[in-house]
């Protein structure tokens, strides 16, 4: 036992002091420029401040709305964790899960969907930060692995939008193994020459960064997103120094060669579409409306 | 207290002190007898303690400073070890060792973390306490690709607290280095046997731990986060590490039950650090069996089995509602 016990600050989850979700209510104060914004304007602007372009954190479903053409089909939505470790910290994980499910209306921290992005058929997975910090446990790993396999079967591009604090501690080594599971599936997608676009949003850290988020054929990030392996506080404890401003932000990673582009949310869809077209994604067949079918018949006539 | 005993081995430490005191006195047959008696008691207490170690005690054993390192096993079980160095991109990372060796007359590639255990502080600093940086993972992958190119099986030794959580790690892309290893090892076309013999510290361990068979030492640990870190986050008190160690289910028997590992490698009573010779001898059988059973498969079957192995990880914890 040491004579003097060092008072250590607990490692808190990333950026706790910056409530960046799009809040409810009519008016919102932008944490970027402190301006008051009309909430409707913010929503219309995809959760980006119209004055200073601060990117508010958005949920998985909103994310799909910003990227897909119209309707989409959700998959594997009923998968849920059984709490395999029977984990209890200050309260049982089982209870945490129940409350989070009720509050979010989701069963875990990712939405997998198929839909169209600028006319291209895609498989997409979007992570939900509101569900236990977007953490990856067995269900997130399974759903993303299935998304990869679905992209393989359909020979369609895969897009994963990461927003996660990393692996889910309450599922222990099983969470850790999800990194291996998803990466193994991505090896197959890679060998099959199918496109994988990784989109990193604030925050993307830990086991999510150290597995699929860094494995895109291209890695795109939203501006100023926190992206890293170790949390900033853990690093500060290691080096016993304050970290410089902008460390582990998108622009820092771009500078160090870890990202292809930092993309404004309002340009993300168009950027992904251009990328996918280079990667030989084929446009989806135009659905045959009765009128269009008739016109096609007409044009066949000499 | 002799440096070799852990905090829960207090009763052993007391007896060892008695032995020491007796040994300093001039030898007589009676004294010799009582020393032997003391040793027998030590052994029986040790057997008793180690038969029912708590998860936190296992953490302490797994981190023991005299725990055998990858090179201790190489010295005892392998011959013709030729170390190779460098990632050809930035540096040579001493926290990960890689080299060619022979095992039972077969050429194999050995990779493994090295904490500098057993050595002095200088050694530990040289090895960065087993905290590997991106160049370590890239060196390992370079070596693994050589094994694939020349059709040699791989034995990977896992013992690290974590990947190095520092500024240069992030700057040089520690996440990318680990992620890329995970993807490439999953598809590496050569047999891989993984031995988690010390501390399996989250992503830093996993970054060289994808394989066809995962062996784990009896008192080793394998976890998504160190108990101290988990306690600091979930309990907001790193002092709750003992509880966190229990909650995380990081012991070999737990992980065997979850299908994370395939087999438990027995250790000498009292842990691998008490007897390196015996620890190595106890690994020999399981390692040889694992290598020959994996080596007997053709590439396609082996790679499919490896895929399915990791694909099934976590299925025990999923329900459809």
Which series of helices and strands of chain A comes N to C? Answer: EEHHEEHEEHEHEHEHHEHH
Supply the helix-strand structural class of chain A.
alpha/beta
Task: Provide the structure class of chain B.
Answer: alpha/beta
Into which percentage range does the β-strand content of chain B fall? 15-25%
| Order of strands, widest sheet of chain A | 3-5-6-7-8-9-10
Number of DSSP strands of chain A?
10
Helicity of chain B, in percent?
40-55%
Which blocks of ≥5 consecutive residues of chain A have pLDDT under 50?
292-302
Shape of chain B: globular
CATH architecture of the largest domain in chain B: Alpha-Beta Complex
Sheet-strand content of chain A, in percent, reads 15-25%
Largest interface, chains and sizes:
A-B, 69 and 62 residues
So what's the CATH class of the largest domain in chain B? Answer: Alpha Beta
Oligomer: heterodimer
Q: Treating each run of at least 4 consecutive H or I residues as one helix, how many helices of chain B?
A: 14
Question: Please, could you describe this protein's structure?
Answer:
The complex is a heterodimer of chains A (302) and B (321). Chain A has helices at residues 39-44, 60-67, 93-104, 138-154, 172-191, 206-209, 232-239, 250-255, 265-278, 290-300; strands at 27-29, 36-38, 73-75, 79-81, 110-117, 120-127, 158-164, 196-204, 218-221, 261-262. Chain A is α/β, with parallel strands linked by helices and 302 residues long. Chain A folds into 2 domains: 1-57, no CATH class; 58-278, 2-enoyl-CoA Hydratase, Chain A, domain 1. In chain A, the strands form 2 sheets. Chain A has a 7-stranded mixed β-sheet, with helices on both faces. In chain A, strand 8 (196-204), helix 6 and strand 9 form a beta-alpha-beta unit. The N and C termini of chain A lie far apart (95 Å). Residues 292-302 of chain A have low confidence and may be disordered. Chain B has 321 residues and is of the alpha/beta class. Chain B has 2 domains: 7-52; 59-312, Alpha-Beta Complex (2-enoyl-CoA Hydratase, Chain A, domain 1). Chain B is built from 14 helices and 9 strands. Chain B has helices spanning 10-24, 29-51, 55-62, 70-77, 121-126, 134-149, 167-171, 174-186, 202-206, 227-235, 241-247, 252-258, 276-295, 299-311, and strands at 79-84, 96-103, 106-113, 154-160, 192-201, 213-217, 221-223, 263-265, 318-320. In chain B, helix 9 links the parallel strand 5 and strand 6 (213-217). The mean pLDDT of chain B is 96. Strand 4 (79-81) of chain A pairs antiparallel with strand 9 of chain B.
């Amino acid at each position: 036992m040491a004579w003097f016990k060092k008072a250590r600050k607990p490692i808190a989850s990333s950026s706790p002091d910056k409530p960046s979700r799009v809040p409810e209510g009519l008016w919102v104060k932008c944490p970027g420029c402190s301006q008051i914004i009309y909430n409707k304007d913010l929503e219309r602007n995809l959760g980006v401040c119209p004055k200073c372009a601060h990117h508010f954190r958005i949920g998985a479903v909103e994310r799909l709305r910003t990227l897909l053409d119209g309707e989409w089909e959700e998959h594997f939505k009923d998968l849920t964790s059984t709490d395999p470790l029977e984990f209890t910290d200050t309260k049982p994980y089982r209870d945490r899960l129940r409350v989070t499910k009720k509050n979010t209306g989701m069963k875990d921290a990712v939405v997998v969907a198929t839909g169209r992005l600028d006319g291209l058929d895609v498989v997409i997975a979007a992570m939900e930060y509101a569900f236990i910090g977007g953490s990856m446990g067995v269900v997130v790993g399974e759903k993303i692995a299935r998304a990869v396999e679905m992209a393989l079967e359909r020979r369609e591009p895969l897009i994963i939008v990461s927003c996660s604090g990393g692996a889910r501690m309450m599922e222990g080594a099983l969470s850790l193994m999800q990194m291996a599971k998803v990466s193994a599936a991505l090896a197959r997608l890679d060998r099959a020459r199918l496109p994988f676009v990784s989109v990193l949003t604030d925050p993307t850290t830990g086991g999510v960064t150290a597995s699929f988020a860094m494995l895109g054929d291209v890695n795109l990030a939203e501006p100023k997103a926190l992206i890293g392996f170790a949390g900033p506080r853990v690093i500060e404890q290691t080096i016993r120094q304050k970290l410089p401003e902008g460390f582990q932000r998108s622009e820092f990673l771009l500078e160090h060669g870890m990202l292809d582009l930092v993309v404004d949310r309002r340009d993300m869809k168009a950027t992904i579409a251009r990328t996918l077209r280079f990667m030989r994604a084929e446009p989806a067949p135009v659905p045959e409306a009765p009128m269009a079918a008739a016109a096609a018949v007409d044009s066949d006539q000499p | 207290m002799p440096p070799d005993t852990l905090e829960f081995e207090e009763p052993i430490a007391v007896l060892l002190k008695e032995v020491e005191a007796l040994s300093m006195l001039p030898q007589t047959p009676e004294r010799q007898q009582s020393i032997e008696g003391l040793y027998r008691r030590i052994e029986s207490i040790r057997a008793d303690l180690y038969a029912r170690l708590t998860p936190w005690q296992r953490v302490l054993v797994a981190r023991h400073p005299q725990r055998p390192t990858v090179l201790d096993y190489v010295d005892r079980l392998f011959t013709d070890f030729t170390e190779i160095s460098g990632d050809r991109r930035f540096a040579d990372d001493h926290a990960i060792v890689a080299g060619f060796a022979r095992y039972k007359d077969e050429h194999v590639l050995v990779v493994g973390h090295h904490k500098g255990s057993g050595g002095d502080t200088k050694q530990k600093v040289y090895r960065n306490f087993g905290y590997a940086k991106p160049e370590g993972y890239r060196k390992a992958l370079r070596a693994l690709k050589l094994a694939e190119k020349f059709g040699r099986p791989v034995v990977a030794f896992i013992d690290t607290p974590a990947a190095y959580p520092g500024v240069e790690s992030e700057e040089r892309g520690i996440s990318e280095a680990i992620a890329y290893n995970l993807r490439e090892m999953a598809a590496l076309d050569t047999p891989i046997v993984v031995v988690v013999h010390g501390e399996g510290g989250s992503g830093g361990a996993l970054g060289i731990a994808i394989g066809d068979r995962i062996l784990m030492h009896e008192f080793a640990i394998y976890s998504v986060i160190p108990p101290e870190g988990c306690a600091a986050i979930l309990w907001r008190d790193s002092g709750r590490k003992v509880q966190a160690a229990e909650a995380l289910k990081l012991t070999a028997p737990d992980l065997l039950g979850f299908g994370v590992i395939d087999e438990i490698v027995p250790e000498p009573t009292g842990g691998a650090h008490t007897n390196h010779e015996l620890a190595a001898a106890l690994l020999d059988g399981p390692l040889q069996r694992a290598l020959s059973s994996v080596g007997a498969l053709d590439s396609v079957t082996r790679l499919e089995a490896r895929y399915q192995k990791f694909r099934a990880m976590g299925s025990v914890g999923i329900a459809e509602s």
